[in-house]
Amino acid sequence: MSILIVGGAGYIGSHVVKQLNEAGFATVVYDSLKKGHREAVVSIDFIQGDILDTHVLSQVFRKHQIEAVMHFAADSMVGESVGNPLAYFENNVAGTINLLKVMINFEIKRFVFSSTAAVYGEPEQIPIMEDNPTKPTNPYGESKLMIEQILSRCDEAYDLRYISLRYFNAAGADSSGILGEDHQPETHLIPLILQAASGQRENINIFGIDYPTTDGSCIRDYIHVTDLANAHILALQALIEGKTSNVYNLGNGKGYSVKQVIEATKKVIGHEIPTIETGRRLGDPSVLIASSAKAFHELNWKPELSDLETIISTAWQWHKNHPKGYAK
């Protein structure tokens, strides 16, 4: 039996594939390579295809004995989703519906979904709990919430069991150095800081220094990508063991401000980083921290690489060895 990883050439998906292989699972990667990287695929079986193409998807299920599906193939840039919502609803929602249709046709009923804490929108309490109101403030978060609602209906109608994992800021890189974070364009804080540290960009912007936090900058919950990958495998094992559908937050339960992340990066790399303090970005909450107590208790998941300097050190190692990302 094999696990199909849709979007397995992307940042998080590729790390999950590596962890699955090391855990003894056979993996099949399906990715359009529009944003993923062929060099990041560490599975023997790779098929290039789009989740909007049900014909190619069906061929994959027909050829391989798929036992379960993990889904990472979503567009995920908030600003882009605001400017082009139809593209996000088409790829994220319609694409997932296509994938679910093919799964149901082939009677595959285990599904691990890479969701996001963006489904909560502006949080009403910190830390955020799974039963908090879901009020996404952008099409990206809305598309993920729509998928979760569709999955709930599929569970009721087709007995398709799923686990949805909601998280904010994946960061870091695999300790082997063969996998890392390579987005075009890059929008995540830690790789942007590392680009400024290595001279690939002139500076790092600090958006807002007047938030009600200890140093005035936004606070976010960062989680190492390897810890995220392990959570996905635990979710898969829970479904294989017959557990019911569920939703879990994933985070460290501890937040770091933008300025703290910059200071920690200075300590890791050993020199100053040029910064510019500027105004707030529209829609940026002051603090976003997720409670992972439910995942701790029910999935037996615990982050092992939660220290901020560890997260930055692994990212820096990747960045130094791959200054142009996966490009040769």
TrEMBL record:
Superkingdom, taxonomy of origin: Bacteria
Reactions catalysed: UDP-alpha-D-glucose = UDP-alpha-D-galactose
Record's keyword terms, sorted: Carbohydrate metabolism, Isomerase, NAD
PANTHER family given in the database record: UDP-ARABINOSE 4-EPIMERASE 1, UDP-GLUCOSE 4-EPIMERASE
Residue ranges of domain NAD-dependent epimerase/dehydratase in the record: 3-251
GO MF annotation list: UDP-glucose 4-epimerase activity
Pathway membership: Carbohydrate metabolism; galactose metabolism
Quaternary context: Homodimer.
Enzyme class, first EC level, given as a word: isomerase
Designated name of the protein: UDP-glucose 4-epimerase
Cofactor: NAD(+)
InterPro entries in the cross-refs: Epimerase_deHydtase, NAD(P)-bd_dom_sf, UDP_G4E
Enzyme Commission number(s) of this protein: 5.1.3.2
Family: Belongs to the NAD(P)-dependent epimerase/dehydratase family.
Alphabetical list of NCBIfam families matching this protein: galE
GO terms, biological process: galactose catabolic process via UDP-galactose, Leloir pathway
SUPFAM superfamilies referenced in this protein's UniProt entry, alphabetically: NAD(P)-binding Rossmann-fold domains
Transmembrane annotation, as ranges: none
